[in-house]
């Protein structure tokens, strides 16, 4: 299968630029794990997550104009990008002038197929007992978990939707990627544990506030499933 597992670490969330790029070609086994000097400073918030400092990349090459960028552009013309919370990574690549043609988001697929209070990559790593090594919030460490999660999800999707071929499974995963998942229960805040239906009857104003808060975020930070659910209960 022409699958490219990919993860990025960036300067920040708003108009973020590439600091670390890691990917693995599932078909050939080829890997890339490189650091780059971005055209803007790495924010303190970003450093606190991925621990890549401006000093660490001061002598690294720029991604723009590099052979790594050219190689990635060629790969993405023919491969399906697989990432967790894929729209974030796609947005970062877009900021670097790299276009993504097809993609699968393991976050969305997991939400459709795995019952869990959370679906973050590292949470699923331990919930599903994915036997991998690697540091969290390091692009290469996340690639290892991402690959294991994809391989875990693939047979689940095949069985759940009664599919026969790998091509059908990939098509279904792409379909699930673009299909929002209605949320059942709050997992945060003052209504933690209550259903969205319950809260819609007792405190519609809270749902209105939450919708405005979530939809007001930059697109790559929005929880599309949350917005989809809130729209349903608010009749938007």
TrEMBL record:
| UniProt keyword annotation of Transport present | no
**MF annotations from Gene Ontology:** 3'-5' exonuclease activity; nucleic acid binding
Tell me if Heme is a UniProt keyword of this record: no
Q: What InterPro entries does UniProt report for this protein, alphabetically?
A: ExoX-like_C, Ribonucl_H, RNaseH-like_sf, RNaseH_sf
A UniProt-annotated Pfam family? ExoX-like_C
Instruction: Note the SMART domains from the entry.
Output: EXOIII
Domain of life per record? Bacteria
Keyword line: Exonuclease, Hydrolase, Nuclease
- CDD domains per UniProt: DEDDh
Query: Where do the Exonuclease domain residues begin and end?
Result: 2-159
Protein name (record): DNA polymerase III subunit epsilon
Taxonomic source organism: Candidatus Magasanikbacteria bacterium CG_4_10_14_0_2_um_filter_33_14
């Amino acid at each position: 299968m022409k699958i490219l597992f990919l993860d990025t670490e960036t300067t920040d969330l708003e108009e973020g630029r590439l600091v670390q790029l890691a990917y693995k070609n599932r078909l050939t086994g080829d890997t890339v794990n490189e650091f780059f000097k971005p055209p803007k400073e790495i924010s303190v918030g970003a450093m606190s997550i991925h621990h890549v400092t401006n000093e660490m990349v001061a002598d690294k090459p720029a991604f723009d104009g590099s052979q790594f960028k050219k190689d990635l552009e060629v790969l993405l013309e023919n491969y399906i990008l697989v990432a967790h919370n894929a729209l974030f990574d796609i947005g970062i690549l877009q900021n670097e002038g790299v276009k993504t043609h097809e993609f699968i988001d393991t976050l969305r697929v997991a939400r459709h197929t795995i019952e869990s209070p959370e679906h973050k990559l590292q949470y699923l790593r331990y919930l599903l007992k994915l036997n991998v090594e690697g540091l969290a919030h390091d692009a290469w460490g996340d690639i290892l978990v991402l690959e294991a999660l994809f391989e875990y999800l693939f047979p689940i999707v095949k069985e759940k939707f009664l599919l026969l071929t790998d091509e059908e499974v990939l098509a279904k995963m792409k379909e699930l990627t673009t299909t929002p998942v209605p949320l059942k229960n709050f997992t945060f805040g003052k209504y933690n544990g209550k259903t969205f239906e319950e809260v819609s009857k007792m405190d519609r104003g809270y749902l209105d506030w939450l919708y405005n808060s979530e939809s007001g975020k930059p697109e790559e930070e929005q929880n599309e499933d949350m917005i989809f659910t809130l729209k349903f209960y608010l009749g938007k």
